[in-house]
Amino acid sequence: MLMQSARPLVELENTSEFIARHIGIEAADEQHMLSVIGEASRRALIESIVPRSIARTNPMQLPPAATEAAALAELKAIASKNQLFKSFIGQGYHGTHTPGVILRNVLENPAWYTAYTPYQAEISQGRMEALVNFQTMVCDLTGMPIANASMLDEATAAAEAMTLAKRSVKNKSNTFVVAGDCHPQTIEVIQTRAKPLGIDVLLANSHDEWTKALEGEYFAVLAQYPSTSGRIDDLRADVEKAHAKGAAFAVAADLLALTLLVPPGEFGADIVVGTTQRFGMPMGAGGPHAAYMACRDDFKRSMPGRLVGVSVDSHGKPAYRLALQTREQHIRREKATSNICTAQVLPAVVASMYAVYHGPQGLKRIAQRIASYTAILAKGLEQLGFNARRDSAFDTISLKTDAQTQSIAARARSMGVNLRVYWGDFICISLDETTTRDDIALLWKIFAAEGQLLPSFDAFEKGIEPMIPVELRRTSAFLTHPVFNTHHSETGMLRYIRALSDKDLALDRSMIPLGSCTMKLNATSEMIPITWPEFANVHPFAPRDQQQGYAQLDEQLRAWLCQATGYAGISLQPNAGSQGEYAGLLAIKAFHESKGQGHRNVCLIPSSAHGTNPASAQMVGMQVVVTACDANGNVDLADLQAKCEQHSDKLAAVMITYPSTHGVFEMQVKELCALVHQHGGRVYVDGANMNALVGIAAPGEFGGDVSHLNLHKTFCIPHGGGGPGVGPVCVVEDLVPFLPGHEAGGITGHAVGAVSAAPLGNAAVLPISWMYCRMMGAEGLQQATEVAILSANYISARLKDHYPTLYASANGHVAHECILDLRALKDTSGVMAEDVAKRLIDYGFHAPTLSFPVPNTLMVEPTESETLDELDRFIGAMIAIREEIRCIERGEWPQDNNPLKNAPHTAGALMKADWPHPYSREAGAAGLGDMRHAKYWAPVGRVDNVYGDRNLFCSCVPMSAYE
Ligand SMILES: *Cc1c(COP(=O)(O)O)cnc(C)c1O
User: Fold this and answer.
1) Mean of the pLDDT values across residues 716-740?
2) CA nearest 120: which of 940, 857, 901?
3) Where is the Glycine cleavage system P-protein N-terminal domain (predicted)?
4) pLDDT greater than 50 at residue 373
5) Residue 321: which H helix or E strand, with range?
6) 742 to 457, 745, 747, 755, 779: CA distances (angstroms)
7) Mean pLDDT for the chain?
8) How close is the Cα of 917 to the center of ligand 1, in Å?
């Protein structure tokens, strides 16, 4: 009897313990934290913060939380619905061998993937060195003087090349000439981008159309090199024609081909773009991969994206930092020319490491083998009666197959092979690093008729010449810097990768309390599936019936995100938050046009908005009108109302962030939405702060019409040092028809065209967010939100006597982040927020968000994943720094020689015989007393930003600089 009523000793139900692993705060901690804040329960705290009027009435409908093992098994079953055919499709996506040493030690290594964007230069030297290697690699291979640290994909990079040219050239024409044999997805994204800007895209689909177009009026030209069908054109005369008209010439080029081809920089190209996917990043159904952009020197100040440069630190030693940051959209806001923010840093690091590992000789060998195999393939096909369309090729040949086209493609599929059908009656075959002799034999078999004698590889092998025209063969050297010629043994490579990551501070060492960026746990079980072959080795343009696993992943994740946001429809195509904003505004614009209201083009944006908001509005051709914030950091409703009335006939949209970037839940958000709707506008709610909302309130329910999410913030995709991201665009019912389509990817008939190169964007990282939702369930997700809010309020309360929180609601509470006001310290001690940020490095912490959205403040967002112990350690460091500031205030240390101004302290500086400071070495080192944590040593002293911008240098540092 007794036995029956007692609980079993072992819990038989296999309940998810993941929630408790994801959320760092335990039940016992919670009571203590609540007492510090002054609330009785977590429920009471949340109710005192979230306006009752917006609180969710229905819980999210999600499957119940699964254990790690169960979720992995379920996802594996989904993944196995993807069929792994051997792909010869090409079109910008190729098979590649990710070197194991790079796969395990970069792509699968939290020291790399959990890093943040390198705004804090001193703790980001390792990843910035890798990015400088990337930039150098791109410059060398393209023959251009300057390259940025990655773009989102080749298609958006080409669209950015168009707008970069538009603002940089003298020619005032509105026409952009695009060669018809650029990759189709590139053409599509360019057309989407050009339309709202009033740029005419002139597509030249034949040699005659191309010649004619180049004789007309245009501001820039884009050609693909080699072309999508494999041809290698000599573009020299065309470049001259463009230059004679004061127009720019942009080239989309294959980096691997450029090891063998005359690089565009040597024939006068002004801008070169492309992808680095085949440098070791799996195809992953289209992403993430790093695209690149290089340009001529005088375009560099308006080049989009991030640029890593070399400067000096406080000891005069070379040190990296982000260069020319004033070009970035954060700073330029409505004057921005691009909205790119999160890019593709982790894939860029992989590509750069691939070049470091293989070196110039290795890359050339890979390229030569591909080119030779291609020539052998062509010869064999010729023997079988199929002639390659032209005789120039690097890795791709195209065959006119006429009426046989479909039957050949079908036979290929029946043999597990995907070929590309091009323009209805051509077949293109692209080879890559993974192609084997057996593959070539298989291809011949596909094309051979019954009983036809198959060609022999061996017979062609001897004396085979690549099909690269002699006048286009590269003679110049590349990748001559020692870094590309040193680490070719696996031991050497392993140590190089380790040495770089050891310089950096990422989430694997300590919390990164970045406001607005939500640096939460990126759980290992979420990360594991992304390199499963079933997800990694899918070509984005493989037939849809082979991508059933991705289709299901897409469908389920969208359904769950609809639950989380309250919206009716979602597209996962945008590959960063900025791209989601852009897609969302395109939807609003297309909606107004569909109602005959195409003249509505005013977009109201509060002054506190993130820089991408006005930048995105600009890109869809809207006129940005900035609205004021009141003294409490809220949108000034009176000003908003006045501007709505003033622009009523022309109002297209209002973009707000909720809760605001000031870290508060504005009480009147419902009224705000209603007001905008009254004037015929639509409400865009920037979803970057969804970590304060999931399970508690849904933008689609309280009045938002469109939002983007940042899956790389709220839904656990790691930041990767500045990308990859995923920025789903979410809309209410009547905007669903205006979500982006993708003709090349088979999503046809949409009013709005493609916004990314691949139909599912950065598809390969979607399993991360899927796993997160699946392991958390509705209750776990809501609990995460509540604990994130609890932790932010705990920090705000604990620090209030040291650093007051700038904005709070009437009861003194904040949302999931708080802005610490350091502005008064300037007068009392000469200390700026930046000094505190740098001093935190000595204590082993990454600084909070610096000076956004308010200058000279720090915005702290702890997230739900940190333990109370880690929160207390951070609070302890902040208080210790405040005590140091008090010493300065009391005059014990001079304002210009104290531990804050001299931070961070390198080990070298602390050990020097000469110690010209009024505080001890031990005090300078900081954090040594806390033996529980290994001391983090900054590899460089404070980096001089001004020097770096005055002496712009963005490639590998010559070894002599270190002497
Ligand atoms: C991060 C962020 C964005 C931009 O997202 P990306 O993925 O970096 O392009 C937009 N708005 C806010 C408030 C953000 O925090």
Assistant:
1) 98
2) 940
3) 21-447, 488-742
4) yes
5) strand 318-322
6) 39, 5, 5, 8, 35
7) 95
8) 41
Please determine, for residue 556, whether its predicted confidence score (pLDDT) is greater than 70: yes
Instruction: Give the closest residue to 821 by CA, choosing from 783, 860, 786.
Output: 860
CA–CA gap between residue 776 and residue 221 (Å, rounded):
50
Neighbours of 737 (CB within 10 A): 16
Task: Measure the N-to-C terminal CA separation of the chain; round to a whole number of Å.
Answer: 83
Q: What is the pLDDT of residue 13?
A: 59
3-state secondary structure of 773: helix
Ligand 1: list residues with CB < 6 Å: 341-342, 516, 576-578, 610, 612, 657, 661, 686, 688, 710, 725, 727
Cis peptide before 659 (omega within 30 of 0): yes
What are the C-alpha distances in Å from 877 to residues 802, 845, 860? 12, 9, 14
Counting from 1 in the atom list of ligand 1, the atom nearest the Cα of 580 is 9
- Tally of CA atoms within 13 A in the half-sphere of 745 that contains its CB: 26
Based on its alpha-carbon atoms, the radius of gyration of the chain, rounded to whole angstroms, reads 28
Q: Are 565 and 700 in contact (CB under 8 A)?
A: yes
How deeply is 161 buried, as exposed, middle or buried, from its count of CB atoms within 10 A (0-12, 13-18, 19+)? buried
Report the alpha-carbon distance of residue 481 to residue 42 in Å, rounded: 57
- pLDDT tens for each residue of 249-284: 999 999 999 999 999 999 999 999 999 999 999 999
Q: CA–CA separation, 178 vs 301, rounded Å? A: 25
Which parts of 673-721 are beta strand (E)? Answer: 682-686, 706-708
Q: What are phi and psi for residue 637, nearest 5 degrees?
A: -65, -35
* Protein residue closest via CA to atom 7 of ligand 1: 577
Distance CA 7, CA 657 (A): 48
How far apart CA 101 and CA 99 sit, in angstroms, is: 5
Angle at the Cα of 768 from the Cα atoms of 767 and 772, rounded to 5 degrees: 110
**How far is it, in rounded angstroms, from Cα 502 to Cα 300?**
31
Whether the per-residue pLDDT at 437 is higher than 80: the answer is yes
Site to substitute for ligand 1 among 150, 610, 657, most atoms within 8 A of C-beta:
610
Would you call 674 helix, strand, or coil by DSSP? helix
* Enclosing H/E stretch for 190: helix 184-197
Q: What is the pTM of this model?
A: 0.97
Half-sphere exposure in the Cβ direction for 437 (13 Å, CA): 7
Q: Is 5 exposed, middle or buried (0-12, 13-18, 19+ CB in 10 A)?
A: exposed
Length of the chain in terms of residues written: 963
**102 alpha carbon to ligand 1 midpoint, in Å?**
29
Q: How far apart are CA 302 and CA 164, in angstroms?
A: 7
Ligand 1 midpoint to CA 429 (Å): 39
Give kind and range of the element (H or E) at residue 212.
Answer: helix 207-215
Atom of ligand 1 nearest to the CA of 340: 9
- pLDDT of 928: 66
Residue 338 corresponds to which amino acid?
Answer: S
Atom of ligand 1 lying closest to residue 609 CA:
13
Q: CA 363, 366, 370 angle in degrees (round to 5)? A: 140
Ligand 1 atom closest to Cα of residue 727: 7
Q: By CB neighbour count within 10 A (0-12 exposed, 13-18 middle, 19+ buried), where does 162 fall?
A: buried
- Give 250's DSSP letter: E
**What's the rounded mean pLDDT across residues 644-658?**
97
Q: What is the pLDDT of residue 633?
A: 81
Nearest CA to ligand 1 atom 15: 516
What would the mean pLDDT of 686-704 be, rounded to a whole number?
97
What pLDDT is stored for residue 15 in this prediction?
Answer: 65
Farthest CA pair distance, the chain:
97
For residue 265, how many C-alpha atoms fall within 13 Å in the half-sphere facing its CB?
20
